[in-house]
Design brief:
Length: 155
């Protein structure tokens, strides 16, 4: 009787080890889908940050950044020029930039957080995720058009 119990215990341990390996693998795979590394950090983070939608626009008054209208009926007339971006310290933020200017390329930058989009063509979107890891008032801007700028306030 005793002789038979020994091998049973051993195989139980083996099963636990195998389950452990499987769970670790599933965990890593899941992380691979959802983890992203902010542009100013070496550590991948999970989940989604505060979403900031901003568009580059060209009017008779010149070039500007505006909040994305979203296309809904409610958003009619609520376009804000050079909107101030408010964040809390260590908050994860994803900036979704879109160029709505048919004639000119634009880019989006927040130098202090290593946020630099490429020069975006007409209707070209780019999302940049960063961590607001310091407090203060910073400037976002387009390097091609100095008048395109606004504030990022991290509290
Ligand atoms: Cu520009």
């Amino acid at each position: 009787m005793k002789k038979q119990k020994q091998p049973t215990k051993k195989s139980n341990i083996k099963i636990f080890v195998i389950i452990g390996i499987i769970l670790a693998g599933v965990g890593a795979g899941y992380g691979g889908i959802n983890a992203m590394t902010p542009v100013n950090s070496k550590t991948p983070v999970f989940g989604f940050g505060e979403n900031i939608f901003i568009n580059a626009k060209h009017t008779d008054q010149g070039f500007s950044f505006v909040t994305q209208s979203g296309g809904g009926k409610k958003s009619m007339g609520t376009t804000q020029v050079s909107p101030t971006i408010y964040l809390t310290r260590d908050q994860l933020a994803s900036v979704h930039v879109m160029n709505n200017d048919k004639d000119f390329k634009h880019n989006f930058n927040i130098d202090e957080f290593n946020v630099h989009s490429k020069d975006l063509g007409y209707f070209e979107p780019q999302t940049i995720t960063f961590v607001a890891d310091k407090t203060g008032t910073f400037r976002y801007h387009c390097t091609l058009h100095p008048e395109m700028s606004g504030q990022v306030i991290v509290q």
